Amino acid sequence: MKKVLVTGGCGYIGSHTIIDLLENGFEVISIDNLLNSTEAVLEGIYAITGKRVRNYTVDLCDRDATLQIFSAHPDFVGIIHFAALKSVGESVLQPLRYFHNNLNSLLNVLQCAQDFEVPHFIFSSSCSVYGNSSALPVMEDTPWEEAQSPYARTKQMGEQIIRDFSVAAPFMRFILLRYFNPAGAHPSALLGEAPSNPASNLVPVITETAIGKRPEMRIFGDDYPTRDGSCIRDYIHVMDLANAHTRALQYLIDKQPDNPCDVFNLGIGEGVTVLEAVHAFEKVTGQKLSYRIGDRRPGDVVAVYADYSKAARLLGWQPRYQIDDIMRTAWDWEKTRTYG
Ligand code: NAD
Ligand code: WQD
Prior knowledge:
The chain is of the alpha/beta class. It has helices spanning about 10-25, 40-50, 65-70, 90-95, 95-115, 150-170, 200-210, 240-255, 275-285, 310-315, 325-335; strands at about 1-5, 25-30, 55, 75-80, 120-125, 175-180, 180-185, 215-220, 230-235, 235, 260-265, 270-275, 290-295. The chain is globular.
């Protein structure tokens, strides 16, 4: 059995990726200090897969505690490192907390990977590394612009740290995955996005408004130079994203590529406006959303979407879900969820 360490395994993308890993024959150990999650997700994983996953409630910034887990499991075939703080707005207010958490946890995990000779490593990066890029669609080699937040800078720095480290760790292979806008939930409605901190991303804001947790929502600007005036993003279903991780890991194991550190965009390659997303939600759920047009949100880029042809070519990955599926599964989850 191939044993994988998933850091941040109780979080949104980590928990969905665990499902895909288990369904593809991997064994999983999670480390998550539950800063933005709960262990209730482990019950969801069990209900879907019939498999129990162990989570160690440990802060990855604690080097000794992290080391102990590696000592107990010296046989990881790979590490998928999701654990991080991810709120763009919060990072502007608490930059030191973001640099401390996102970079020290990464350094500790890399050190342990080196000490225990774990051969494969996958890092959660983000389209935010591209900054305010005007080149569309964004390719992996599109030059980076200035990071728009301390959060985005932790992702740029994380990628650079891994690239430098990969030169000094020739026995290891790395993949950096740049997610665009992850959304949606497992189709069973037994698992979905349930952050402990208030959600600020569009899809959970929509579902929380529809269920009545929020009185109404704002559309942040309808005067952008787009087809309906609202911003364009590339929404990718979380299960498509999850499957890309399994494929990336399998690719490293099977191919042992010459390139020690490779990078892939993960989006579906189609831009959807905020208003189109809202209307997709209303159409597939039959719910009328209470929304108002508000001011532009500082820091928002007008439009961004991915070229994912590299992931298709090398990983054999294709997204299967569209915006309607994202809205349907997110809504099914919102209606049944009991935590978060
Ligand atoms: P999430 O907050 O749901 O999951 C992250 C998990 O990491 C949480 O459960 C949290 O408790 C844990 N964690 C954080 N710091 C930790 C630490 N020091 N030690 C142990 N556990 C810790 O976030 P997510 O949406 O699942 O994101 C996963 C990764 O993907 C993150 O690195 C994030 O930056 C990146 N990412 C997310 C998005 C998105 O929109 N969700 C987009 C691009 C990239
Ligand atoms: C999407 C669109 C908003 C909420 C962020 C990070 C990015 C990545 C993904 C981590 C925008 C609009 C939103 C609302 C709205 N995360 N919106 N009303 O900002 O594209 O990307 O998450 O790496 O790095 O920056 O995602 O979901 O916040 O916004 O009108 O209440 O929805 O203005 O156009 P964003 P988002």
